Amino acid sequence: MEEYEIAVIGGGPAGIMAAIAASQNSSSVILLEKNFSLGRKLLITGGGRCNITNSKPINTLLNSYSHKNFLKHSFYSFTNEDLLSLFDLEFITEEDNRVFPKSGKSSDILKGLTDKIEDVSISYNFEVTSITNDFVINDKLKADKIIIATGGITYPQTGCDIKNYSLTSHPLTEIKYGLVPLITKNDLSEIAGVTLYDVVISYKKSRVKGNVLFSHVGLTGPAVINLSNEISEGISYNLLENEPEINLEVAIDLCPELTRENLMAKFNKDFQSKGKTMIKNYMKLFLTNSFIEYFLNECKIDGETQLSRINKKSKNRLVENLKRFVFEITGFNDKLAKVTIGGVDIKNVNPKTMESKLIPNLYFAGEVLDLHGPTGGYNLKIAFSTGYLAGLSASEK
Ligand SMILES: Cc1cc2nc3c(=O)[nH]c(=O)nc-3n(C[C@H](O)[C@H](O)[C@H](O)COP(=O)(O)OP(=O)(O)OC[C@H]3O[C@@H](n4cnc5c(N)ncnc54)[C@H](O)[C@@H]3O)c2cc1C
User: Fold this and answer.
1) What DSSP assignment string belongs to 206-233?
2) Which CATH class is domain 2-173+342-396?
């Protein structure tokens, strides 16, 4: 039986980084990947451009994660500077501190990473299905230390699989969809492709400002995707046992800069002074053109109506809908979920080493852990930093 000092399971960003770090101190590292190539999910990140990280200073960055205390040590052990200096590439920083390779190609990131893998054996088409108590993998090879970096459950075509959670007996938290588009009760085909810019979308007490995009089946875009984490976390379900049942409302504030009173005062003034203007033209002051017809239909107001003919009830309806345009949500568009909420319970993992507190010499890295962040490079940041720390700790132990 082949024997290695360190076996890394999973060749995504976390596993690749763990293998790179481990090989600095150990010459006996094997990376086991079930696909015929590494980093299949990495290739589709950022719409194929790879939003590799977020350039906020570490302290501010950490505030965006619910498990910031756990992540702190790994983020300081492997910073954005450490990450970006691995590549012989130029990077650009876009809105909201999102960092991308200047080439716009995630394949450049994957190539840059794989070029750094030295002194590591790689076994492709190797799906780990069993690990014994003395670290024999698939009855084929044995390792002194194992790093599990098998990812979450989303986009299974990239290699993720819910059954990986049972590779060890480690306790898990509830497994849920994260960063996922929402399916609405109403068919939105007629406004599919329309974007609402800088609106505020809310669910219960959670509010997210940003862009909302309509798809044929519902709502997507950065603001919706980020809000979806709060929604998913707030619903009781666990994908290890059942799918979520969803029936809830989200509301969009289409004019977040104006209060209801501001809007009513403006309407009162303008509906007199511009009495002959048709409402569909007047609404251009507040809404993107391609959304006006749908909006007025929902308000049950004929777009051709002149402002002077709009009665008080309709005026109230306009104000109410501009401030609280409601959509009934009936599901998650789970095939497009970007991350997994939940995973290996971090209570049982040492944040300074990523080693299990329950099974010595077993380490975890990346999305397999109960760690996730919003969109904007926050999730790859977890994979790279925890991967690096796990690899280094395993090789130094
Ligand atoms: C469409 C999409 C776009 C995204 N865009 C971004 C973005 O721009 N920025 C960002 O920060 N995050 C983004 N993410 C999230 C990010 O891709 C993940 O958080 C990240 O890939 C997690 O890395 P990982 O190494 O932990 O897991 P993965 O990337 O999922 O890698 C896990 C690897 O393990 C292998 N594997 C699984 N099971 C086994 C097994 N039993 N045996 C052997 N190998 C196994 C898999 O084949 C896979 O190669 C996106 C996600 C999606 C789905």
Assistant:
1) EEEEEEEEE-SSEEESHHHHHHHHHHHH
2) alpha beta
